[in-house]
Amino acid sequence: MSVQIDHLHSESGSRRFAPTAEFSAQAEASPELYSDAQADRLGFWADQSRELLHWHKPFTKILDWTNPPFAKWFDDGELNVAYNCLDRHVEAGNGDRVALHFEGEPGDSRDITYAELTAEVKRATNVLIKLGVKSGDRVAIYLPMIPEAVISMLAVARLGAVHSVIFGGFSAESLRSRIDDANAVLVITADGGFRKGRISALKPAVDAALQSGDSSVQNVLVVKRTGQDVEWNDRDLWWHDELASVEAEHVAEAFPAENPLFILYTSGTTGAPKGILHTSGGYLTQGAFTHKNVFDLKPETDVYWCTADVGWITGHTYVVYGPLANGATQVLFEGTPDSPHPGRWWEIIEKYKVSILYTAPTAIRTFMKLGRQIPQKFDLTSLRVLGSVGEPINPEAWMWYREVIGGNITPVVDTWWQTETGAIMVSAIPGLTETKPGAAQVAIPGIAIDVLDDDGTHVGHGNGGLLVVTEPWPAMLRGIWGDPERFKETYWDKFEGTTGAKDGPLYFAGDGARLDDDGDIWLLGRVDDVMNVSGHRLSTAEIESSLVAHPLTAEAAVVGASDEVTGQAVVAFVVIKFSQAETASHEDISAVLRAHVSQQIGAIARPREIFIVDELPKTRSGKIMRRLLRDVAEGREVGDTSTLADTSVMQIITQKMK
Ligand code: WT7
């Protein structure tokens, strides 16, 4: 097991922060959540679901686990996800509440109330109907962080169709493979977006993706955001023209609880990205429950801000579905933290009096490097809960977050979950949990987590092992789009037939974890060939195959090397084809290959460094020993090389690095 974040071991959990009496007294969550869930786990989720959501047709069944690992939650119930996020708040008299404080990158801003958002989504739904989109159809969404991204997702959901949001940073090729895998009938995009003071185009990537003409896409709906020139094709339609051309009214229809809601692609250890499938009733239940309790949400008074892009799962569950189901007021920000000045985030918090902030450790570490004098110029006293997600948060960053951003008083919750889990699984609950810097700590009420060794045996306090989910949960993925076998193999086969503690299917998350002496959970990073760069999941295999696809490359190995700011960084070791090796300098080759990966996958996958080597270290059976390459990439003494086929390879590589 290659546990990479070793320094977490040194934190013993001795620093603790008990909730203040004041906070506990007003907290949404009560200790009964744990005892109720303990007493009757399924009954607990049924109660939460009834309380938090509107069911057009109430469910009578809670969980069907007769055909594991294929779960059905609330199967005979019917609901409309968009109705739950929109109309019902308006009907309850909260139509004037701001749903989105939109803050554009160039400084334009716009408040959108629940009534306005509902009206926009109704029109957008009518546009989808006009374009022939039906329930069950897939719609690809490739947009910047603008209100139309949220509106599009909700319009697709309202129709019982399935969205596949593709992060705007992904390339035309990545877009095409995702469109093809899901057979999307429509793409919703924009002319472009704003990034760091410049215009960045989106539409050309869609044009390039659809260039060959043989795709399932019938139309491309284009939001005008930047006003830049765009090429126009027969299939293209302007968003504003189409919205103006349809009726304003649309009545939401109820769909079965297990109706697919979205597909979201994420990287695995091998092959192409997997389309993680989520459905409606269970997903929305756990999304709303965790959003309310983990962030102690008071919809009437809080201003919530999750900095994630809607292209990732965090944006799905904690920008769109959780907060809107709960009727929250939130900030939607198009830009980056440091543009036009390094205090932009803190300025936004001051402007909107943000009270709940949810962000990633990589951002916190970047701000730490810039220094506390920047946030200290702004009034951050509105903040009362801080959340972290995406990767393990080192105790030092946790402390800085609490002290500098949280005024030494706010609770900090470190939330562990995944694209696959759909919603938060492990986290402290403010007002209830005594927090420990660096630990995600405890399973959410109603969620069953364990740490097991390879044999499936519980490791016991003070020991490390593999994180597993031992019981099905409402927001769990329902499968990998089009590939039920891969779904089983990837997540459910690991502990099959082991002699450990529990019968029945165990979900293997791919993370290492340790239980401290109190039984609290400390996440230790991935145990497979998945990297985590700035909280984004990247596959070593996918980047390797991109590198190898270039005519210069003979062989490539990619590792995630630890990085002070981004958590991990992509480092590649490349063997150049003999015929090419003499013609260009290493710098040129490395620049060409970095650009190639960026173009094939997206800028987030671009290697930080590429080392040109003569050979890769391999075992006698031909397996690349990434562990040794990681030692080199992190500037460490190279570990045990005795299982290498040729033990001199590492000597040559390390000599070259010097
Ligand atoms: C992987 C999932 C969950 C939304 C963002 C990432 C890592 C996530 C934590 C945390 C330690 C974390 C895990 C996980 N991860 N949150 N609080 N502490 N590790 O979603 O792209 O599906 O990645 O991110 O390694 O498996 P994702």
TrEMBL record:
Residue list for modification N6-acetyllysine: K623
SUPFAM superfamilies in the cross-refs: Acetyl-CoA synthetase-like (SSF56801)
GO CC, alphabetical: cytosol
PTM note: Acetylated. Deacetylation by the SIR2-homolog deacetylase activates the enzyme.
InterPro entries: Ac_CoA_lig (IPR011904), ACAS_N (IPR032387), AMP-bd_C (IPR025110), AMP-bd_C_sf (IPR045851), AMP-binding_CS (IPR020845), AMP-dep_synth/lig_dom (IPR000873), ANL_N_sf (IPR042099)
Binding site for Mg(2+): V548, H550
Chain ranges of the Acetyl-coenzyme A synthetase N-terminal domain: 32-85
Catalytic activity: acetate + ATP + CoA = acetyl-CoA + AMP + diphosphate
Cofactor: Mg(2+)
UniProt record, GO biological process: acetyl-CoA biosynthetic process from acetate
Record key words, sorted: Acetylation, ATP-binding, Ligase, Magnesium, Metal-binding, Nucleotide-binding
Enzyme kind, highest EC tier: ligase
Entry EC number(s): 6.2.1.1
Domain AMP-binding enzyme C-terminal: from-to ranges: 542-623
Domain AMP-dependent synthetase/ligase: residue ranges: 92-481
Comp. bias intervals (Basic and acidic residues): 1-14
Ranges for region Disordered: 1-22
Function: Catalyzes the conversion of acetate into acetyl-CoA (AcCoA), an essential intermediate at the junction of anabolic and catabolic pathways. AcsA undergoes a two-step reaction. In the first half reaction, AcsA combines acetate with ATP to form acetyl-adenylate (AcAMP) intermediate. In the second half reaction, it can then transfer the acetyl group from AcAMP to the sulfhydryl group of CoA, forming the product AcCoA.
Annotated family: Belongs to the ATP-dependent AMP-binding enzyme family.
Protein name stated in the entry: Acetyl-coenzyme A synthetase
Source organism: Cryobacterium roopkundense
Lineage, top ranks: Bacteria, Bacillati, Actinomycetota, Actinomycetes, Micrococcales
Name of the gene encoding the protein in the UniProt record: acsA
